[in-house]
Write a structure and sequence with these properties.
The complex is a heterodimer of chains A (327) and B (467). With 327 residues, chain A is mainly α. Chain A contains 23 helices and no strands. The N terminus of chain A is likely disordered. The N terminus and C terminus of chain B are likely disordered. The chains are: A mainly alpha (327), B mainly beta (467).
Chain lengths: 327, 467
């Protein structure tokens, strides 16, 4: 990365090299120190720049060089253009950009004075984040990057401060409060890379196929936010022999031979894990009025009347002999 | 004469035709194509009645192939009108194993027409509603309106799709997996009000109801509130809570406070409650699933521009079971999870590592990942990765240590064409203390992925940028 000071030095050296004429002593400008790049606009309209610099020198940074009169007034030089063709600079950061809320406030500034943005920013600077908003006026008025021309400020890799290393796990509230802010930078395909991804999302560690069991068991992540339990989990567990294998000692339940008697507490704590291997009819073998021993699975305090009112069909899955009695 | 009856697929086919035709008529079309081929080795197990143990079978492989197209088309002569589609084709390159969902060769993750006006927007087609209630897909109409610049009102309704599956409830694919699912499809409808009174504050309220298409019952009826605010530019408070109206119970909830310091340092504290969301069309909800609560502390620091690190600690407290069952297994009521990560850059080299330890009631797991990546400004990237983890407890088949090593690489072949690849080989080392009855399990496996990203059309975005 070339820092601002380095850039000043490079420009100070390269400028005179490119100048075809001898520099009159009286024309030497005030020192081009590290603040010069941000403040030279006021003095750049004078005739002295042309003693050292050519139009192509300025155009190597200014993406809007074609529309800046002071730059267009300078003579062109093919040799300078060749010297700077394809150069990439790191631009200095104006004081306004250092404000803590610049990320949320820059939109208003861009709408107010889009021409100022065009000094350093090409349209591609904005579309680095605003991928679906290239039609917004402050973005649309910016010049595009040109092959061999100035590239403008490179914002690749820029992330909002809120996107901490654990953002993949914690973005839920922000995303849920309306997707407007997410849409500023992301299209739906980006969400789908994890939520319906064709490859392992980055927040799942390596070999998650073998490693996911504890996470799933204690629900440290909400698996159902992305995966349909029956379709996703059961399909794989069955093809691998991990579900409904018919083994008498239920090795996946810690080889507990009394699992049928002892599983209730575990099932209540992690019923979704049960559903990742078992179908509903597995439970109905015992937990049904017509099943073995007719074991009642309803805990005390469950509002069965409310559930029956909402969906009587579910009651009839177990209570197959008419309306279920409600205590 | 046979009457012509519109098939169930008709709306989908119409939208598909519309989406296919839209780019032809549009002045501007952008297409992002992602082709992903994976090679996944797995080792099935089989119960051996003679030896009374599970025996590993020979390694089998799955080679799922996925082709995603994201199409964004606009410029139909009507300002604000666009067509958007995110469609997926699935196939297999000769698999031994059935990889989940790869019998289903086509999916439309999103496929809609959108008209966006300054004050309102309308969407017609397949879309997904993201809210504090989670992700819900539906085929239908949604509309949003800004009565004030800071307020947004949204309503949506349509044919409901199964959560995480994007198929109607009554689809054959789901019926094959669970014969007790209802025969009817569902209707989904909901409304949301969002407000952003300041640029640093937002909150929303949502109500959503999902019913069986024959109106014989409710699938789910839920509401949620959420909001976040940033005070003085460094303190962010966020909270979210949902209520299950159908069962009259509170569901998931979260509240967090994040303090951001200079140089990328931050502290975050979060309280949360988890309760599963279960459709009323299944019996799982009447088994009285329990909730758990917990908290997480996260510290993040970046003492140097080239060095950042984070650490987090999570503790969960499970609900005490008051059921009188003399046989029931006693379970610990707490579980802990600790994690730490570090990223350092040295010139064009990037080092990253993370470690996590889970001490859960169902077992424990300890594991870490390390990576070194060479990423010069030219855009290509090559790295090596290593991993190791142990897992024990109830899931005895995973006793031992798994070691893994591999590589990852990314090459921007052209400005808008990138090829990425990664591969890992995992070697399972059995622990000596493993019971003899479970000996012989071999979990050595290989995984690899090859991805090709290609963007073309109007104003393609810059390569490497977040999508």
């Amino acid at each position: 990365m070339i820092r601002a000071r380095t850039l000043v030095l490079a420009l100070a050296l390269a400028g005179p090299l490119a100048a075809p004429r001898a520099l009159p002593a009286q024309a030497m400008p005030s020192p081009h120190d590290s603040t010069w790049l941000l403040t030279h606009k006021e003095q750049a309209s004078g005739p002295t720049c042309g003693f050292c610099h050519r139009r192509d020198f300025c155009a190597s940074c200014h993406v809007n060089a074609r529309s800046v009169e002071a730059i267009q007034n300078l003579p062109a030089s093919d040799s300078v253009a060749r010297l700077y063709r394809g150069r990439r600079w790191t631009y200095p950061r104006p004081a306004s950009h250092a404000a803590a809320d610049w990320q949320s406030a820059h939109g208003a500034a861009a709408r107010a004075t889009p021409a100022e943005c065009a000094t350093c920013h090409a349209r591609e600077s904005c579309t680095t984040c605003h991928r679906v908003e290239e039609r917004l006026l402050p973005i649309a008025v910016l010049p595009r990057q040109a092959r061999g021309g100035p590239q403008g400020v490179d914002l690749s890799g820029l992330r909002p401060a809120s996107h901490t290393p654990t953002w993949a796990q914690t973005h839920r509230e922000v995303a849920a409060s309306g997707d407007a802010s997410c849409r500023t930078c992301h299209t739906q395909a980006f969400c789908a890379t994890c939520h319906d991804g064709a490859r392992r999302p980055t927040f799942h560690p390596a070999d998650y196929v073998a490693r996911h069991r504890q996470d799933a068991y204690v629900r440290s992540t909400d698996c159902a936010a992305c995966h349909q339990t029956q379709a996703f989990c059961v399909q794989c567990h069955r093809s691998l022999g991990a579900a409904r294998t018919g083994a008498p000692n239920a090795a996946f339940h810690d080889r507990q031979t009394d699992w049928a008697l002892t599983h209730g507490r575990v099932a209540r704590r992690s019923i979704e894990t049960c559903a990742s291997c078992h179908r509903q009819e597995d439970c109905l073998k015992c937990h049904s009025v017509s099943g073995f021993a007719s074991v009642n699975p309803h805990p005390a305090g469950l509002d069965l009347r409310q559930l029956q009112a909402k969906n009587p069909g579910t009651c009839r899955i177990c209570h197959t002999t008419g309306t279920p009695p409600i205590p | 004469m046979k009457r012509l009856v519109p098939s169930r697929a008709a709306p989908g086919l119409a939208l598909l035709a519309l989406a296919a035709a839209a780019p032809l008529a549009a002045q501007s079309v952008r297409v992002h194509s992602t082709t992903t081929a994976r090679y996944v080795e797995l080792r099935p197990i089989l119960w051996n009645a003679d030896s009374a143990r599970y025996d590993p079978q020979s390694v089998q492989s799955a080679t799922p192939l996925t082709q995603d197209f994201e199409v964004n088309a606009w410029g139909f002569g009507v300002d604000g009108l666009r067509a958007y589609g995110l469609v997926r084709f699935r196939g297999s390159l000769g698999s031994d194993l059935v990889w989940p969902r790869y019998g289903d060769h086509f999916d439309a993750l999103a496929l809609y027409l959108e008209y966006a006006h300054a004050d309102y927007a309308l969407r017609l087609g397949r879309q997904q509603k993201v809210s504090a209630l989670g992700w819900y897909g539906f085929d239908g109409l949604s509309g949003s309106w800004h009565p004030l610049a800071q307020i947004r009102v949204e309503g949506y309704a349509g044919r409901g799709l199964a959560r995480g599956y994007l198929e109607p409830y009554d689809s054959k694919a789901l019926a094959a997996l669970d014969p007790l699912r209802p025969d009817h499809g569902t209707w989904l409808l909901g409304a949301q009000v969002s407000a952003r009174p300041t640029s640093a504050t937002s909150f929303s309220a949502i109500y959503q109801r999902e019913i069986l298409a024959d109106r014989s019952g409710v699938v789910s009826e839920r509401a949620a509130l959420d909001g976040s605010t940033t005070l003085r530019g460094f303190l962010t408070l966020a909270a979210s809570s949902e209520f299950d109206i159908a069962t009259n119970q509170w569901g998931k909830a979260r509240a967090s406070a994040t303090v951001e310091f200079t140089r990328g340092a931050s502290v975050r504290a979060e309280l949360f409650r988890y309760r599963p969301t279960l459709d009323l069309t299944t019996i799982w909800g009447v088994f009285g699933p329990q909730s758990h609560t917990g908290y997480t502390f996260t510290l993040q620091a970046a003492p140097l521009r080239t060095l950042s690190a984070y650490g987090s600690y999570t503790e969960r407290q499970y609900q005490a079971d008051t059921t009188v069952n003399p046989f029931a297994t006693n379970l610990p009521e707490r579980s802990q999870e600790a994690a730490a990560g570090l990223t350092a850059r040295l010139g064009t080299l990037r080092f990253d590592g993370r470690y996590s330890l889970l001490l859960e009631y169902g077992g424990s797991q300890s594991g870490g990942d390390l990576g070194v990546t060479l990423a010069p400004p030219a855009g290509w990237r090559v790295g090596v990765r290593g991993t190791a983890f142990q897992s024990d407890g109830e899931f005895r088949v995973a006793d031992g240590t798994v070691w893994g090593a591999g590589f990852e690489a990314s090459f921007p072949v052209l400005d808008r064409f990138t090829v990425r690849a990664d591969a890992m080989r995992y070697v399972y080392v059995k622990q000596k203390r493993q019971p003899a009855t479970l000996g012989g399990l071999d979990w050595n496996q290989t995984r690899a992925t090859l991805t090709v990203d290609w963007t073309f059309g109007t104003n393609p975005d810059r390569q490497g940028a977040s999508r």
